[in-house]
């Protein structure tokens, strides 16, 4: 794992050139943590679930978290309820540092978002943050299995018409990084929601303001963001 305190935290990606960059959404491009906490706290109270039981669900599709905690007879109702709560609470959702610039840097290059959110929720959160997504947006509605399975990143690569091993995935969550590794992608982790020890990635930076993406023809490189760059 890359040491974020090292002189060059991007050393693990040195001299790498990528055909595409695939971003996670929540915790990577947008900060939706307060809304997520409020929605899941209300849901947990409704269904008698403790905070300890909810731990470890970051980065997973909501329905998968529900199925892990709720018995079969009540699963459909519980999934419908968390979907309602999340769509109803879009307050305090903001763009994370560097996210808007990263997408602008890649406007002429292949890039995508691959999120565990549903399509309606992804669209709502991106709009609430005022962030314009790339053309390719993969949600849980587009794949059979969500993270930590590789399906979201494999589907993003397919739609971008590139090989998964030529993609760089940017993630904040351990489950998302597991999905990226399973897909064969290179990984850049951001320390927006997790501690460094939790993240197994080729490189780790505090957030996207620490880097710049440089398209050059069909290739993309990632570099540290200097004050003049």
Automatic annotation (TrEMBL):
EC supergroup of this enzyme: hydrolase
Alphabetized InterPro entries for the sequence: HAD-like_sf (IPR036412), HAD-like_SPP (IPR051806), HAD-SF_hydro_IA (IPR006439), HAD_sf (IPR023214), PGP-like_dom2 (IPR023198)
EC annotation from Swiss-Prot or TrEMBL: 3.1.3.23
GO molecular function, one term: sugar-phosphatase activity
Classification via Pfam families: Hydrolase (PF00702)
UniProt KW keywords: Hydrolase
Source taxon at top rank: Bacteria
NCBIfam families listed in its UniProt record: HAD-SF-IA-v1, HAD-SF-IA-v3
Protein name (record): Sugar-phosphatase
Source species: Microlunatus parietis
């Amino acid at each position: 794992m890359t040491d974020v305190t090292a002189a060059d935290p991007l050393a693990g990606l040195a001299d790498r050139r990528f055909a595409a960059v695939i971003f996670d959404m929540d915790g990577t491009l947008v900060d939706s943590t307060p809304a997520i906490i409020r929605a899941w706290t209300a849901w947990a109270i409704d269904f008698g679930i403790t905070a300890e039981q909810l731990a470890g669900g970051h980065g997973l599709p909501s329905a998968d978290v529900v199925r892990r905690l709720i018995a079969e007879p009540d699963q459909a109702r519980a999934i419908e309820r968390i979907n309602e709560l999340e769509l109803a609470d879009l307050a305090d959702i903001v763009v994370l540092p560097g996210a808007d610039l990263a997408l602008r840097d890649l406007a002429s290059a292949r890039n995508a978002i691959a999120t565990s959110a549903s399509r309606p929720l992804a669209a709502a959160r991106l709009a609430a943050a005022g962030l314009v997504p790339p053309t390719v947006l993969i949600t849980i509605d587009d794949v059979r299995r969500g993270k930590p399975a590789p399906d979201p990143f494999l589907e993003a690569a397919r739609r971008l018409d590139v090989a998964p091993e030529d993609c760089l995935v940017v993630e904040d969550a351990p489950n998302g990084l597991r999905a990226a590794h399973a897909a064969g992608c290179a990984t850049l982790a951001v320390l927006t929601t997790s501690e460094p020890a939790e993240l197994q990635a080729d490189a780790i930076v505090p957030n996207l303001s620490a880097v710049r993406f440089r398209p050059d023809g069909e290739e993309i490189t990632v570099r540290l963001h200097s004050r003049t760059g």
